[in-house]
Design a protein that fits this description.
This protein has 69 residues and is of the alpha+beta class. Helix content is 32%, strand content 35%. Bound molecules: dioxo(di-mu-sulfide)dimolybdenum. Dioxo(di-mu-sulfide)dimolybdenum binds at residues 12-13, 15-16, 19.
Length: 69
């Protein structure tokens, strides 16, 4: 299992946090996500055999937010 923290731009309320969590939860291989509205960060625990960091990023972007490494 691997963990990464991504900077997520554009989250402005708790609903955004839930949107990001929901989007990530649809990906096979994602085990756990912690999303901080205050920090604007998502920490994601995932199986690198099943999901790539690039897919984590594009999934958050497709949900309507921006990701800055
Ligand atoms: Mo809150 Mo975010 O009303 O996509 S859910 S701003």
């Amino acid at each position: 299992m691997t963990s990464t923290t991504l900077n997520v731009l554009g989250m402005t309320c708790g609903g955004c946090v839930n949107s990001v969590k929901r989007a990530l939860a649809t990906l096979p291989g994602v085990r756990q996500t912690e999303v901080s509205l205050e920090k604007g960060q998502a920490t994601i625990e995932y199986d690198p055999a099943q999901v790539s960091p690039e897919l984590l990023k594009t999934t958050i972007e497709d949900a309507g937010y921006d990701v800055k490494a």
